[in-house]
Amino acid sequence: MIRRHLLAALLAPVVLGLAACATPQAPGSALAAVPAASGRLSLTVDDVQGGPPQNLITGFRLTGSASAGTLTLDGALGTTALFIRWAPGSARLVRGDGVRDYASLDDLTREALGESLPLAALFDWLQGRPSPLGPWQAEAGQASPPRVFSQLGWRVDASQFAAQRLLQASRAAGNSPGGATPGVQMRIKLDAAP
């Protein structure tokens, strides 16, 4: 099946937002108002049937923590295309076509973006270090702390983080009980200190 969820999830709310001249508003939150991280996110999801990959480049803001946080993805003309909020046992997606609740952050990102993304681990990865959310393994020949490591099925490259505030992470294509899983490449360039 060709994965078109990614672009459709972001473009549909933008079109709806422009048509209505309104931006989906993020619900009130007890989370800190200062972003933990913000910048540009580039995401490429390969097509498991050999078609062209799906690409997304957008601004983002990440706040809170691994256990309770928010992620905002920008749309056209300064609108909010997607707003994601999570807390223990719940995750909520707000976009131009409404609000939807999910049992987990994995379920939400899989539905909204076409593939599960390690949002909770990003809080540590964007500090240039492995997350305490799971075991990790450094690539050979590195000093401590590692700058290139594998965790949660992803290869994380933070070697350019200190100098350029750039993080790259990739997940190889593979097979799962539900079928083939596409390769995913994620590139994050921060423009604000986490």
Keywords:
disordered N terminus, outer membrane lipoprotein receptor (LolB), chain A, 19% helix, eleven-stranded antiparallel beta sheet, Lipoprotein insertase outer membrane protein LolB, 194 residues, lipoprotein, two-stranded antiparallel sheet, alpha+beta
Describe the structure.
The chain is of the alpha+beta class. The chain has a single domain (5-23, 31-117, 159-192), classed as Clam (outer membrane lipoprotein receptor (LolB), chain A), CATH 2.50.20. 19% of the residues lie in helices and 40% in strands. It has helices at residues 5-20, 105-113, 119-125, 161-164; strands at 37-45, 54-64, 69-74, 80-87, 90-95, 98-102, 136-138, 148-151, 154-157, 166-171, 174-176, 179-181, 184-192. The chain has an eleven-stranded antiparallel beta sheet with strand order 6-5-4-3-2-1-13-10-9-8-7. The chain has a two-stranded antiparallel sheet with strand order 11-12. Strand 5 (90-95) and strand 6 form a beta hairpin. The longest helix has 16 residues, at 5-20. It is globular and about 50 Å long. Residues 1-34 have low confidence and may be disordered. This is Lipoprotein insertase outer membrane protein LolB. Keywords: Lipoprotein.
